[in-house]
Every structure is written in C-alpha cells, then in structure tokens.
Amino acid sequence: MRSARNGAARGIRFADFDHTLFACNSTELFIASCKPVLLVAVLDLLIRRCVPWQLVGLQQWFRLRDFACCFCILLLMPWNLLIWRRAAPGLYARLESAAVAERLRRADPRDVVIVSFGMTFVIRHLLRGSPWQDCRLIATPWLPGWRHFRSGKLHLVAPHFSAAEIARAWFITDSRDDGDLLAAVGEGELITPQGEPFRASERLYLPLRYTAAAKYTRSYVLDQILLVDILLLALSLGTSPDALLAALCCVPFLTLSLMCVYEIGYYENDMVAARKEKSPTLRCEAANFRDFPIEPNAWIWAAASGAAGLAMAHGMGLLGPLGLGLGGACWAAMLLAQRAVFYLYNRRTPKSRMLLYPVLNMLKFAPVFVLMPPTKLGVVLALSQVMTMWAVYITYRHGGDHTKIRKESLRLVLFGIGVVLLLSSAPLAGLGGGFQLGMITAWLLLRLGKAPILAARARRRPEGSLLVARQGS
C-alpha cells in the first residue's frame, strides 16, 4: 500500500486493457488460442451459449460467463496454460496499441495501474517481457469476489487506493461501462476502441456455425436444414410409422455430415466472391470469419457424424446388402463427390453455374439415397425440392425478383404433377403406399403456412422483411 500511495503522489495512471492498451479482447483471444480446437469449441458452446447466464440477476452477467468458460477450459485441459504462457508475449507485441502505449510511457511505470475485468493470468502472461510486466494489475483472479461480476471498475480499485488518490488519478478507457471510474478520477479519457472486434466463436469451428452466423441466419438453419432437408429425407424413406421413425433416428446425423462438407463450399463461395465478383451478395458478417478454421475441422465432424449415422442405420437394418463397410466407403465417396462439385461450381462464372446448381442441390439427398434407396414418391419429392430451388436460382441469376416465387406452393405443385404421372402407370402401393403419400402431403401443406407467418412477422417488425427474403426453403 505504501508504494501505491507514493505513486499516487506522483499521479496514478489507470489504464483499461482490452481494446485500450491491448488492441484486442484478451479473454476471447485466450479461448480462441486453446487446444484442441474441437473440444474447446464444444465447451465454449455449452458454457457460453447454452447456459442462461442472464438469469443470475447480474447486469454484467457476461463477465461471470467468460470467467466460467476460462476456468472450465483450464480445469479440463490444463496444458493450455503452458500454451498460453508461450504464445502470449508474441501476441501482445503484435497487438499492443501503439498510441496508448506511447502516452503511458511518458509516466513512471510504477504509476501505471492496469485495471481490467479480464483474467489476471491471461493479462499477466501477455505483459511478460513488455514495459508493463511489472506494473500493478487489478483484474479477475482465480478466486474472484462477487464485486468482479456485479460492480464497475471503481469497486475494483477502491480496496487498493484511497478516495483522495483516485480523485487525483488519470484514467483512459474505451468502454462507457467504466463510467463510474471515469467520473471518480481527476481526469478521465474515453477513446475509440483500439483494434477490431474479436470473438472466439469466429475462430472456433462448429458445424453450421458459419452458415448460421455469416452465410444465412440461425433461423434459416433451423428451418431449411431441420424442417426441410432432414424431414424431406425421412419422408422419402418412411413407408410406415416404424420406417419413418427409424429414418428420423439416423438421417439427422447423415445430413449433418453432408452439411459439414457443404459448408466448406459455402465458405469458399463467399471468399471467392469477395475476391472475384464485382457485386458479391455477401453479408457483412462474412468478413468476421476470414480466419475461420473450417478445414480440416469440417471433415473431422463430417466423418464423426457420418460414422454415427451409418452405425445407427446398420443397427436398424437400413443399409441392406451394402453393410457397414461398403456403406462407409460409399459415403466417403459421396462426400468427396459433393466437395468436388462445389469446388467446380465456385470456380465457374456466375452465369455458367446454372447447370451445376441442381446437381449441387441433389447432392444434399443423393448420398443418403445411395445408402437407403427411397421409394418412387421419395424420388419425386426430392426432385420437386431440387427443381424449386433451381427455379429460384435461375430467376436470381437473370436479375429477376426471386423473392416473389412462392417456393412452398411450387414444390407442392411439382410434387402433385409427379404423383399424378406416376399413378397413371403404377398402383399407389408400388410407389410407396398410402401412409407415405399422406405424410408427405401433410408436410407439404404445413409448409404452405410458412410464408403467411413470416409476412406477419415482417409487418410487425419492418426490418425483418430482409429475413423473409432470405429464408426460402
């Protein structure tokens, strides 16, 4: 305390750390640097996205959330402390804010006090070897008090300095959340955040994360993949209640496997468009994922989820004569074929992609059909979906308003035409049976209610009109 008071006589200089002295978010950077990425990504999702931290009643609940995530990572994967200790100094040297550091260098280092809600061990390792390695650091320790999550920075520094010392101090920060300390010091300065926003989730791969956050939206993933692609495949195979239930058990894993590889194409498509197209239709969020480690992680997830789906299908006797070994080989070949077609598609000019587009869409369903042959009704349903999306794409590429196409209605009409043509040459029992036709028809009719629901939402929230346009299935 004596050294702190002597420093106060010369004038204490409080400095925020994240996006002030350090042009990044130290906690997010630590989480993104931990290994193995697959386990860290799952843990980050479970702790920071699935737990309802808002219910703890803290205004700054996200501090507790981030502390819990860092604590659990080191508890379950302690080697990351050594990894961070080795990597942190280099990261700080690269990401230090030169402008803020230059201003702090004018003061005696003994007068500089870094105040942060970040983790003490994270920041201390970052500062190692820098001019600030011996500065006083007030941050979140391993066993924090409740004030670290409930109050502002004034409550952090108050136990270490008197009110008079704080009143004579200077404080620089980028955050308006530090208003209590800004108001208490003799001179406070609020600056523009240093560096770009940084989120660990944009550097940690999880299946469909890019699709949900940058390519489309979370609601698109729920609607298009869960309520269209998965249900369409299950209905194409389900000739009875038992068969439908069995398909619903294994198809989600197989669809996830396909979409992991498909997402590589999405990501590549956006990156190629950003480089080559004059007017690329990209969401601004796509730029945040330029360092997204989609490969080889997408292939690892595709292999794991595909293996799970194949094992379940084999256990329920759905693979037929293929068996597990040959079925796995066929699945791997289809994943490679899908990737090859998307690779070729991304390197064609936009106008010349039209013939490849239906092939690409059919490869969402064909790999499953290779393992588990669909009925004729199932084939017509899949083709109806592919033709619907092709019509939308052709309209879009020719400059038309593709949002005006009633996709749900078009799919229903195409399926109806196909069924009528089939019934003219074969009995219903040979096409898939009454149960399957009834379930498919019910699903198609239920999908007709999607457009009115989205339109009603858009009327209540005008900014949602863009979402209506993007969420076509």
From TrEMBL:
It comes from the Bacteria. The keyword Metal-binding does not apply. The chain crosses the membrane at residues 29-47, 67-84, 219-237, 243-266, 298-316, 322-342, 354-372, 378-396, 408-429. Keywords: Membrane, Transmembrane, Transmembrane helix. This is Haloacid dehalogenase-like hydrolase. It comes from Teichococcus rhizosphaerae.
